Amino acid sequence: MSVSPPSVSIERPDQVTAAAPAPEPAPRRVRPSIGRRIALFGPLALFILFTLAPFYWMLLYAVTPTNHQGLLPWPITGEHFAAAWNNLGFAFLFRNSTLVAGSTLVITVVLALAAGYALARFEFKGKKALVLALLCTQFVPGVVLLIPLFQIFKRLSLIDNLLSLVIADTVFQIPLAAVLMAGFIRNIPVNLEEAAMVDGCSRLRAFGAIMLPLLRPAIVATGSFAFIGSWNNFLFALMFMNNQHNFTIPVGLANLIGEYNVDYGALAAGGVLAAVPLVIIFAFVQKFLVQGLTAGAVKG
Questions:
Q1: 31 in a domain, yes or no?
Q2: What is the pLDDT of residues 135-146, one digit of tens each?
Q3: β-pair partners for 262
Q4: Is 10 inside any structural domain?
Q5: Which pTM was predicted?
Q6: For the segment 103-137, what is each residue's pLDDT rounded down to a tens digit?
Q7: Cα–Cα dist 296/180, whole Å
Q8: Residue 192: CATH number of its domain
Q9: Contacts of 230 (CB under 8 A, 6+ apart)
Q10: Using CA atoms, how far apart are residues 211 and 219, in angstroms rounded to an integer?
Q11: Range of the domain at 209
């Protein structure tokens, strides 16, 4: 009787399944110690408190009665806002500041676009010296140029005219705005413009169709700086304006500080009214402002 040998199955090498490697454990998040968190966030909290304390003081004096004592804004009153708007004439102060700052913004952005494009796209003799001169103008304080500017505006019959403030503010805002705009334009590839000009666009049309949409964050950033600088300018408005109806907000608020008496309530209410437009502007343009400020630091 023949006995058949037991059958042995041999697996082919390509049929052998490799064992799946064991998954690596997820890295454990190490929470910083309490001392490290205090060292990290403590100075930041102190800085925020130091920054916001004056704003809280201003708001407290603006919404509470004159003889109020305490750190809580209660009871709330609007008498100081009414006094600032009616007695101080805040309506025409607001109008003058808006007119001057808005005009400065528009002129600065237009001229900065033209100057920044020339600095970024064209090569000419003295270009580096021109950029250095534009940057050096930021080290010159405005008080040094008061007498020359006053003499120029006097000969042009622009003293006590809001146009003198627009010209002076624009002259001081353009150099930095042009240098910043040149950095933004330099980060946009020139091939985009060349492709548009190959398709038949002129340089001006290519700039308007290709560059302007890409420069929107840069325009918002430079325009915001120009608007805020003109809105807060006190020195030029004080020196060039004599008529009370041509005062801007900083000069009007300074008139509330008398020799023997200071209306703290109306002064604080005026400060709140002056800060509201800037807060609203930053709330709407914050995203574009951050993009514009970081665009010049990253190569595109």
A1: no
A2: 888 888 888 888
A3: 257
A4: no
A5: 0.77
A6: 999 999 999 999 999 988 888 888 888 888 888 88
A7: 8
A8: 1.10.3720.10
A9: 100, 101, 104, 105, 165, 166, 169, 173
A10: 11
A11: 89-295
